[in-house]
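Forwarding these from the shared drive since the link keeps breaking.
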Amino acid sequence: MPKHVEICTMDAPKKIPTSLYAEMTPNPAAMKFVADRALISGGLQVEYRSKTEAKGSSALAEELFNFPFVTSVFISGNFVTVLKDESLGWEMIVQQLREYIREWLMENEVAVSAVPAELVNRTRESSVKEESSNHHAERIDYSGFEATEYDDEIRFLLHEYVRPAVESDGGAIDFMAYRDKKVYVQLKGSCSGCPSSTATLKGGIENLLKAKMPDVVEEVVAEAV
């Protein structure tokens, strides 16, 4: 009688059911792609400005930089915000990009595997341009700033009242420092490179903090990176 021969077959990787939709942001250069699950753990958020920065941290971002029009990738919570150059309009690329991201997420559980310390600390190490009344830009070195008794309350107000609105538009806000009744914040994601949204957010944040902390805050300095 013929011997029984067992043939081992490798099961195809199971795909992760994933829904994804594209959403316009106030920044015409940015598109927000929202998934039905978390893409990064621990409440972290990270912005990549090049394929080199994404390497070893986010395979998704690394792949997205293969599209020649992509200039920045921001990942937070359950969404990815992609910024592009002016070579193509969104109407020509949004469906292709949405399907590409969805297919990638169906084969990968998370979009960010590790966040290098240099990306986490970049906002602390970078300098901010402060616009004075005569539009002269003065660079500020944050290494000279010290923690204050107001920092926690400012962080709470930004997290409670500002962050949800900014994230709904595909962006993020980081508290940088407080000094001399000025609050310094940095805007990321869809806010990056969008002067109109930066000015609008600056005004809104300033009004909120001045109302909640009238004797503490007089001005908000906001930079979009």
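-- next protein --
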Amino acid sequence: MNNKMKALIIGGNGSLGKAFQSSLEKRNYEVCNTYHSNKISENNSYSLDLDSSELEIDKSLEIIRNNFGVPDLLIIASGTACYNPLNKTSNEDLNHTYNVDLIGPVRVIKYFLPYFLERKSGIIHVVSAIAGVMPAVKNMSIYTSAKFGLVGFVRSLATELIGTGVKASVSCPGGIKTNLPDNAIGDKESLIKFFQQYGKSFHEPNEISELILDKLDAREVLIFPTESAKKLFEDNLAKPFWT
């Protein structure tokens, strides 16, 4: 009999998703992940497009549940970035960003939550960003608002789950060396230049995945994986967000 804990990673084909898979396998989890439909599938991976209807998302998750089962740990590490001033952002890019970064993750959690509650156990963890608690980069108002939404949603959900045996938490990493610019929409070239300018100080994905997993058993709901991310947030609390 396989007594391994099961983990499902939404966004498993990204840099952080792959880091989570490696970290979880080292911790003896059985891991399943999802990839976007235009990415290459690997073993124990399933296609999931968060920029699709609730019905299509539910169908994809039903396939995962039937084949893999209900996970003990659900990690949402998917995401996209929209880099453009608001007045230059198309409605298509706006909708895509909110679907992938906010609405899609909420739908995934909504699908699995009844099974967690019935079982009276399970951990839900969502990776937001430092942009989810402070305006971090200009020309990213849509991305930032989606990340703020994730933080607010999970912190509120966590209070709903008190006493159920199910936990929810959200992390706000600082800069991570990921392939986010490659998947960005809008002015991708400017975002790539930003990463080239500041990316040397960013953290490796496996460092972030390990630090997040270390904190999941704690009572924290809002998680800052690194001291630099926590300090960045605390330092900016004292600053006005206007010019």
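The mean pLDDT is 90. The longest strand covers residues 30-35.

- D.
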